[in-house]
Design a protein that fits this description.
- The protein is of the alpha/beta class.
- The protein has 2 domains: 217 residues, Rossmann fold (3-Layer(aba) Sandwich), CATH 3.40.50.2000; 167 residues, Rossmann fold.
- It has 17 helices and 16 strands.
């Protein structure tokens, strides 16, 4: 099967950790017999005179590259910040049109899009223009937040109704797409996987020695971008509460983002300079040492689809404390793997205290996580793409060539 993966959420040579879960899924699909995967990962066009770190990052992305084992193209598209999301998908479609036309001319059986809007919307426009079926995957914010935006909701509804197939990385996202108008028979839930070779247990004392962490005391690790929805503004006060209760706990946060200054200020206000460390970005292949060094990992997000960090932690044998939202209960399916908590500092502190005092069967946690390999995911994705690509455009979709909502 010849697959064109279309998504702006794909890693590149300047951002190797960005969207690495999409790379993992499609690289494993590509390794299966008779599959060929080409990636189109659009990047906003930024003129040379525009200052700023983000602008420089966009300009640094090459037009074409080999990332891992996949060929990746990065067409540019205009992004108009003041207009916002409403035209984002249309601009992405226009920017990628010529490249996708050329690639489809070389032979493509289906378009595999990730993030329903704007990426999936643009992909469905491309699919209809070139008569190629599109399967779009919902990842999280695209479905658990964007439908609340009045100007974007009609575009999401149009996309899920006109895609030949849909994938939700958790059943909560799948059900929401059905509520938006997607035919139930066009929706399949396929969760993410974990690379058991990359995420595997390291003896805790060895990991702490390598990371120069004291051998005594309890350690909590949290992995994710420093943005408000990751809930660090709730986790840090929870560490202060544990300290008030007389517990000695060190929190290490792996990730970077725009919320760092406010988090640093909060750490100072609570007098936690010696207790909370913001590590910045940590290479994906180094995270196993942080998970293994920790007694517990914690995820306090307000929104998630299928949070990869949960399986990554468990694959290293480390139990999790996570917020009870969206797809998280579908990953942490047992209290033998971790604890689910409400999103407030008191509940997070209670969950961490219980988890830190509990004796966990780390080998059992590792064994559970390894059941959800990327090979397993690739098998499910390949079967679903093949089923939907084999159907081609439905008669209804073929007849209805207009009607994009405004």
């Amino acid at each position: 099967m010849r697959i064109l993966t279309f998504t702006s959420l794909f890693p590149d040579s300047t951002r190797p950790n960005f969207g690495v879960f999409i790379y993992q899924r499609m690289a494993h699909v590509a390794r299966r017999a008779n599959n060929q995967v080409t990636v189109v990962a659009p990047v906003p066009y930024v003129p040379a005179w525009v200052p700023g770190k983000k602008a420089h990052e966009y300009r640094s992305v090459p037009r074409q590259e080999k990332f891992g084992e996949l060929q990746v193209y990065h067409p540019r598209y205009p992004l108009l910040p003041k207009i916002g999301l409403t035209v984002h998908g249309l601009l992405m479609f226009l920017g990628a049109y010529r490249l996708v036309r050329r690639l489809i001319g070389q032979g493509v059986d289906c378009i595999d899009a990730h993030f329903v809007y704007p990426d999936g919307f643009a992909a469905v426009l491309l699919g209809r223009a070139f008569k190629v079926p599109v399967v779009a995957s919902a990842r999280g914010t695209d479905i658990n937040l964007y439908p609340k935006i009045r100007s974007v909701r009609p575009l999401l509804k149009w996309t899920v109704r006109h895609a030949e197939g849909l994938i939700g990385v958790c059943s909560a996202l799948s059900e929401e797409m059905i509520a938006l108008g997607a035919p139930r028979e066009h929706v399949r839930t396929i969760g993410n996987g974990v690379d058991a070779k990359r995420f595997c247990p390291v003896e805790q004392a060895t990991a702490r020695r390598q990371l120069k962490i004291p051998q005594d005391g309890k350690v909590v690790v949290a992995v994710g971008s420093l943005i408000i929805r990751k809930g660090y503004h709730l986790l840090i006060p929870a560490i202060a509460e544990l300290k008030r209760r007389g517990m000695t706990v060190r929190l290490f946060v792996a990730g970077e983002g725009e919320y760092r200054p406010k988090l640093e200020q909060r750490i100072r206000e609570l007098g936690l300079e010696a207790d909370v460390t913001l590590l910045g970005n940590v290479a994906n292949d180094q995270l196993k040492h942080w998970y293994s060094a920790a007694d517990v990992s914690c995820l306090c997000s307000s929104r998630e689809g299928w949070a990869n960090v949960l399986l990554e932690s468990m694959a290293c044998g480390t139990p999790v404390v996570a917020s009870r939202i969206w797809g998280t209960p579908e990953v942490v399916v047992s209290d033998e793997l971790g604890l689910l908590v409400d999103l407030n500092p008191q509940a997070i502190a209670d969950g961490l205290q219980t988890a830190l005092r509990h004796t966990w069967d780390r080998a059992r946690i590792t064994a559970f996580a390894r059941q959800r390999s990327w090979d397993t995911v690739a098998d499910e994705v390949e079967n679903w793409l093949g089923e939907r690509a084999g159907c081609g455009l439905s008669p209804k979709a073929a007849r209805n060539t207009a009607g994009v909502p405004t």
